[in-house]
Amino acid sequence: GVQTCALPICAATTLTIAGATSDRGAPLEKPTSFELRTPAALVQPYVKPEAGTPAAPLRSRPYLEFEAPLLDPEAARRAVSLRPAIPGEWSWLDAVTLVFTPETSLPPQTQMRVELKGGPTGPRTAEGGYMEQDMVRSFVTAPDRRIEVSLGRQQLYMVENERIIRTITVGTGVRGAETPLGDYEVLYKMPSTRMQGVNPSGARYDIPEVPWVMPFLGDYALHGVHWRSTFGAPASNGCVGMTVAESKILYDWADVGTPVRIYQ
């Protein structure tokens, strides 16, 4: 008779056939042995945001990155969850990256958990290996932050959890180069850049080492100003300028994706 047993992941055993007969009655000449080896376990995927890192922006999309394509990607999608549960969907960005896209954004100042079920019904390698235990990774989300700019008051407000935590006096666009009204977001961040262009008067400008730059619409940006010391009135070619010290505080506080609201 043949004995059956379940072998653990990444295990080896020797199977010996002591005797056998073919369908025509021919016996096995001598016992024969061969090694059986189960596939290696699935390496737990890399998870972003990582535990212990700075708070994740609310516009983040948590994701899992596996070492190699899986045997059944849909099994992995069924096995993963985000807790506490929020509206959104897990989907494959590419052959190894499983990403969660929230319907709106992540909840502010919340400890989130990415959970991935292990075992034979969970994700498997192409060879059939799986995680023997469930995986849990945690991260914390940032406060709810946005930047508001009042053109009428020539002030910028740093708003956190619906409370103004800092007011900065700024200089926005002059007539003919007004700062655009509307809702935007911080597109990217640059500690320093060179700005060139033409003023409404027709005069060209070329300013090196403009500090703490955060564009929100094309070339329009929030940034520090080292070439003048007075603020509170329109003075720029459309950007929102402020002192270098204040721009550094804003730069360190705001993440890429932070909403920017500009109104009269």
What would your notes on this structure say?
With 264 residues, this protein is mainly β. It is built from two helices and 18 strands. The chain has helices spanning 73-79, 244-253, and strands at 12-17, 32-37, 46-48, 63-65, 80-83, 88-92, 97-102, 111-116, 135-140, 145-150, 155-160, 163-169, 182-185, 190-198, 204-217, 220-224, 240-242, 259-263. The strands form five sheets. Strands 12-11-10-18-13 form a five-stranded mixed sheet, with no helix packed on it. A four-stranded antiparallel sheet has the order 3-4-7-6, with helices on one face. The protein has a four-stranded mixed sheet with strand order 14-15-16-17, with helices on one face. Residues 1-5 have low confidence and may be disordered.
**What is the radius of gyration?**
30 Å
How many strand units? 18
Low-confidence runs of at least 5 consecutive residues: 1-5
* Measured distance between first and last alpha carbons: 86 Å
How do the SSEs run, as a string of H and E?
EEEEHEEEEEEEEEEEEEHE
Structural class: mainly beta
The pLDDT mean sits at 92
Instruction: Specify the overall morphology.
Output: elongated
State the strand order across the main sheet. 12-11-10-18-13
Count the DSSP helices.
Answer: 2
How would a crystallographer describe the biggest sheet? Answer: 5 strands, mixed
What percentage of residues falls in helices of 4 or more residues? under 10%
What percentage of the residues does DSSP assign to strands (E)?
35-45%
Oligomer kind:
single chain
